[in-house]
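Quick one - inputs below.
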Amino acid sequence: MKEKIGVYICHCGGNISDYVDVEKVRDVVEKEEGVVLSKTTMFACADSAQKEIVNDIKENNLDAIVVASCSPKLHLSTFRNVAERAGLNPYNYVQANIREQCSWAHTDKPKEATEKAIRIVRACVGRVRYSEALEPFTIPAANIALIIGAGVAGMRSAISLADMGTHVYLIEKSHFIGGRVAQMGELFSTDEKGEEIISDLYDEIKKRDKIQLFTGAEVVSVSGSVGDYKAQINIRPRYIVPDCDMNKLKEAIAECKTEIPDEFNFGLTQKKVIYKAYENCRPEIPAIEKDRFNPDQKFLEKYKDCIDLEQKTETLNVNTGTVILSTGFDPYEPEDGEYGYKKAENVITLQQLKRLIELSNGKLEYNNREIKNIVYVYCVGSRQKEGENKYCSRYCCTAAIHAALLCRKKFDSVRGFHLYRDIRTYGKHELLFDEVSRQGDIFFRFNEDESPVVETANGKLQVKFRDILTNNEEVAIEPDLVVLVTGMIPRKDSSTVAGILKTPVGSDKFFNEVHPKLRPVETVIDGMYICGTCQGPKNITESITSSLSAAAKSNSLINKGEIELEPTIIRIDPEACEWCDKCAEICPFDSITKTEYSPDGQKGKTIALVNESTCKGCGMCAPVCPTDAIDIIGYTNNEIESMIDGLIKEV
Amino acid sequence: MMNNNMNSPEQISTNKLEYDVLVIGGGIAGQEASLNLANNGFKVLMVEKDLSIGGKMIHLSKVFPTLDCSACIATPKISETARNPNITIMTYSEVEDIKRNGNGLKAMVIEKPRYVKADLCTGCPICEEKCPVVVEDEYNYGLTGRKAAFIPFDLASPRIAAIDIENCTLCGACERACPPNAIDFSMEKKEFELSVKSVIIATGFELFPAEKKKEYGFGQFKNVIHSMQMDRLLAPTRPFNNVLRPSDGRMPDNIAYVLCTGSRDLSVGNPICSQICCMYSIKQAQLLLGALPMTDVTIYYIDIRAFGKGFDEFYEQGKSMGVEFIKGKIAKIEEKENGNLTLKYEDFENGGKTVEADHDLVVLSVGILPNKDVSGFFKSEPIALDIHQYVKQEDELMSPAKTSIEGVFVAGTSSGPMDIPDSILSAGAASAEAAAFIRSLK
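Output:
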């Protein structure tokens, strides 16, 4: 039992002391059993206050401390470190949350907030009184990362990790790498080509022995925990014989007549069922869409050295220390009839326009019609009042303006009319907005409640809207093409991935970081990171920045070959345990199995066994144990009962 | 030299230093980059020009879009940086002349004298109390005064005093009063010769000087303040207990925000968007509605650029709380006799007529400008800057942290406008690139 407890009550500037009478809290808590020192402090987390606590612990030989401040999520490790620096075991520190749970929650009732703060602090003093000195234990960690998704973010992350000394498994669901950037043609603001960037990254990956790339590969299950994840990966066959004669395969492709819509070109063109994503795609080996492929026996016999429809899905099991998710985004696909999409002729999306620019030569044509005037409608599928797409997709304003500039550069006299809500060419991208305006594109602003109407009237494509900038004048334009500036949505399969990895998603259905500033690439699962557009809309620079950041975090976690884990897990009392399997059944982490217990060499009994590296100390098992054989280290029965006593004591 | 972790390397006495990485700038980006590298086992020297690390973020109130208290996020990071055994910090120091030196780089670091012995000062306020000289407090952006013998600010790290020798009258009052005799007017600047393998530039940005936009009358009309001053008025470490307008100390009840002050504006030489002003203005507006419930807040804008994760939702929240948004670029501000201000603008949404509006406090949402110090670090081998004078990103898309000099990387707003989340991510990227670069030298 601790008998020399120090208590610090934080003002948090005014965050706490504006509503909680911190002096009163101190006066009351001072009288608690075992409390020998109690102080208020302006910012307990400030460097000077930390120094003061260290000095107090040393001078007064304190054997436990409580800091009453904010959520332990913010500062638990800060004050554990303070304790440690003063020579006190960090687990003899307990944090009382009187900000999120008290001052912020009860701004209208300062008196009651103060009373609640007193109870919370007393409870924490009660807990620290029975706290035990604990030592974190270390587990070995493989310096290996599994990266899911080989778009620009995943590839760049892989290269960076390899260069920092981590072994990488890079897996890509498609048979070809490059993700969305490969489809984008020329990119803002450097005018580099997406395809060339992808080829360059592929070459860099091939140069590095530490990276193993698998295409057609999907993760189907992940078990284990940080430092020691086990992933099962299914690798779909390409149905092409490895190292076959490429010329003969080309012949086969030429002879094959079955065509299907080419999703790389967003359905603007058809492709053969034996296909490459695009001419210079990587890897360069074609793949076959087997479900749509019905060749005759003669064809198969003729090309049996190249094509093998008997190839089976292979399973690969890998061990990895961390997992990085870089699964990317899907472009928003408008509903049928949304701004005339698929109803009126010549209405396409921004992504289709970028492909159209790439596929066109000298003349911009769509549906056999030369395009001279384009209307761009912004925020399609973004910033919606209803549904999940309330967010701004961030990249589309700049991307649309860059596309308009490209049209002007590549094709003669293509004019753009831009119907927008706010132009968000933030930062240096503003120069593109200036440039396209200078070149003569015209901008109209519509009200979100009165969206433009796109329809075919008298055989002509027409866009009608009211322009806020000219006194709500009704304007009608008859363009050759309407481009819907569609944003980013989470990939269709991201919920499957989330299900397998148990990584949480936010209200926008993108993967969620722990905290946008403190832990922007981390998920709540230790050793699992997110980067690129699977976390939220981003442009390419921003995706790469986050992917390198994830690489840095992943590497610093596992590069030492071991990881320290919290000692606050469960403990089985072997004498009391009668193995009924109730604890194993309820454990959400599958951390409990059974073992034989024979302390004196006699015939023993079966009892529960805890896997220390996967147990999170969540405590689900403790209340279901009929013989009270489970204690949670750091939350023992003594500590909890003492907390309850502190809470219910009259103020 | 400050070495908070008390494990001062021996090189210090010989004025020769050797580290793996030099991080220039102790703001949030510099801290994040240093911590990543230190946790990776590299030895880092952080050089900060100011008396304290912490940069701009430590002075903010709350931060968008989560409305976290800024100091609550910044202080643990500052503390972690200051305490990391792999990080040595030099405050009030400047870098000069980074040169190639074989595989690595050489630099001069000059530590300016603070006239207070860091190892003796306890951070007590006695010198401050005794000092008779009062000057403007730059950490409160001129809203309050400070002494010539002073502790920079409450959350400073290191939290020790300094003498502002420019304004000091050498009366000796502080020297006589200091209990541990820490004040020493004979201190001189110290020069150090530094060898490193890699450099990260994280020097941050400069605020647009609001007085440069003459039509808005900043510095001339008392009740025209800039947004960083408003953030100070709203911060938990605020100078007054409430938001007061400067002319008469009254609580304002009709506040205007003028967006794009010094941004998207060729007339002041800054054509680009500063990327953060829309959001911080919406944040301040929401905080003001909480601090002064009876107050009206109007934001005059060209476009609202709420583009990041959760930003547009934050904008919608502002609207639903009652913040008024008016599309219109303010042409001119005039002062009335009672200190109120008249704003003239073209009212786009109502026919484009020129309209006047009265407000009793105007906040200029000032943009950000590049930190001009950077070119001074590289006198021998100049570093490439972009047309706006930010550090040029040599491979903007695939290696955003890369600069024109091998082994030198850029983090945070040194390469262009960025909000805090983006600065932190870019610092992560710079640290990954530096770590890989150092490994490639072996």
